[in-house]
Write a structure and sequence with these properties.
Length: about 850
Amino acid sequence: MSSGPEPLSPDTAAMRAQNDPGDLPRSSASGTTPVLPGAAPGSSAPTALAAPTADAAEAANVPCDAEPIHIPGSIQPHGYLLCLSSTFTLLQASENIAALVGIPMEQLLGEPVDVVIGAAAAAKIAHAAATAMLDEAPLYVGVIDNPLFSPRETAQGRLAMATDGPELDITMHRHDGNLIVELEVARHPTADVFASMYPLVRTFTRSLQDVATLTGLVELAVREVRAMTGFGRVLLYKFDDEGRSEVLAEHIDDGYTSFLHQLFPASDLPRQARALYVKQRVRLVANADAKSARLVPPVNPVTGRPTDLTYAALRSFSPIHLGYMRNMGTHASMSVSLVVHGQLWGLISCHDHDARLVPFEVRVAIEHLGQLLSLQIEAKEERAETAYLLSLRRTMSQLMGTLAEQDDYLAALESAPDDLLCFAGSTGAAIVVDGKATLVGSTPDQEAVLALAQWLASGTSGVYATDALSQAWPRASHHTDTASGILAVPISQIFRNYVIWFRPETTRTITWAGEPVKRVSSQDGGVAPRKDFAPWLETVRNRSLRWHPVELEIAGEFRLGMLNIVLRRAEELAELADELRRANKELEAFSYSVSHDLRAPLRHIAGYGDLLRESEGEKLSERSKRFLDNMLESARFAGVLVDDLLTFSQMGRAALRPVSVDLNQLVRSVAQEFGAETAGRKVEWVIPELPSVTGDPAFLQIALRNLFSNAVKYTRTRESAKIELSVNSTADEYIVSVRDNGVGFNMKYVNKLFGVFQRLHRAEEFDGTGIGLANVRRIIERHDGRTWAEGREGEGAAFHFSLPKVFRAESANTQNTAGMRRKPGPSSSSS
């Protein structure tokens, strides 16, 4: 295609082939066949160059997700890389630089950069470093004369060279304390690139506004990217939650295999590659057969470690990745990251049977195209999610209105089956309260539902959703026709009460781009790139439709609404008991105030604020939108605070049910709840063998959850966090301690720690409502135990509580205070 990158000129190609055997000319816009080094003239088959280095061969035995791809120690040989010190002396360089400048490498290292590339080019670099805001994004410095054809002063005297030669594009960026300069042969006059690229970019930008669907967007993108780059095949695929990618659109030449609507396994793009692709948005492999140019020396002499090439355009690629490309019949590739909400949403992937060089200017244009497309995808997804959320919220509001009007909320749920099932998009539901299950629609039998509720109570917390229940709970394999997927919402923190929605099995057939397995070398056991990309069909069974994030958000709102209703019903029942009226007079007044004086206005603020944003959002100024967002955030925080207060009030009222509790199982189940919160952090949990104690397991779980939550929260500023639980035994009691190496506190304020609303750190530093530790004290006191704490600022804290070895039943007065079975709200994990 005429708009694609141009071939090298014959003079340039000959010079580069002599200096750098890995660099090779590519086909021209007129369709001529490239002649590769080592191939006979007129031959179209690529010929492999020298064998990979020993380091590269060893790297092939490293598991894909453990390869340090950001420090490959080499670059692609169609360009040159210099690593400069702060004083512009040469610390490292790609080994092919010696042939480019005509000076042995050992004479270049430690020399000023003007010795390497000439005074004029060095002046451009120094000027850019002094005046530009250098960061990880490569900065285009300009075009310089080829050093081989420029006179330069060296320690051996002045080198007088010819006066003609190909010019070089120069880019630079700063990363990890290094100034990294990259040189590539200039492919086009800048004016020609602008003339060819600008109309295409302009057409794409204008067309974006006219495309109404995501399908239209991705089809437009692959068409325009192929027009701009000339690659033979351009794919656009999207990642799912499991890391698999599905090809949504493609544009290909004749002779290229189609992958449209096929899936690639998550293992094709390892974890560290995904992280790198969020940082570096465009990546080019000019020739999968080229021998990489090593960095000399391999270790940066200033940092003492390999130079990080995360943001270098010339970074060489993993031998496994290059083998994967060759197995796919691809000898050049370019990928463009599509990043939505800071996450890798998908990729535009370009392939070619022949080696292909893409100029810097074209890569920049493609990068901007990818950013525009990412913004459009984000906007369309947000618009669709908002519309769906409002629709579900209207249905939920109708359901909650029905529940609020009737005294028996179980009967009310049964009387509105359509609303109950509709807002969760399910075919069946169960309401489990006090060991009984009320079933609506298509569900497993009552015995299975009660067993499921017991499993949920012992192994999950909060809102739980899965589209493959039988994988987590094998007993569900007998009920895939009604319960392949579930969405479970606990409506009590202490009792095993749930609302559970069910979805049936949805059998479907998916097409993989080759069998989705890793190939293992039979010789050395190392991981080798897969070779099979033929369509491979898989029938997916025992899975339901996935739960949408919006449905999970609505489920959380439903949970809060149900907790409010359950609490209100419990309060009304409590008022019927004369003994409870006197003991709980102050608490009932507080609950009434919370329910009627605080919650209703907060709901109104949040509700009318959402309506205002929905109906008038486009008319509001940015300042007004910011004010509105601040108002809604404050209203929701106040709602959380009210919920925590309600929980605190319930901790002293629900009856204790003491049993023998295995602390090993209890502690580890609570610690596992923080897996998602601590993902990406280095957190060491130290949990020894623990004894069994006597107490109410549900209450003790809440106490431990609050203490662990504090430890996780206040160690988040630590590079390496440590959370340790220990138990000491005395004659009469067990002393349980939770220690961390977090920010600690001043012992002068230790007496304030366990009070309601008492906080020793600013809310801007650590969120929370100041009720979590008060809940811990109330729970332990009801077990006839003690609570105390120790800490030092900047050195960590230790929280202790004791449990008697002989449990003493609560007094009759205390039991009456606990009253009837109450359903406390969500426990606070903040202090």
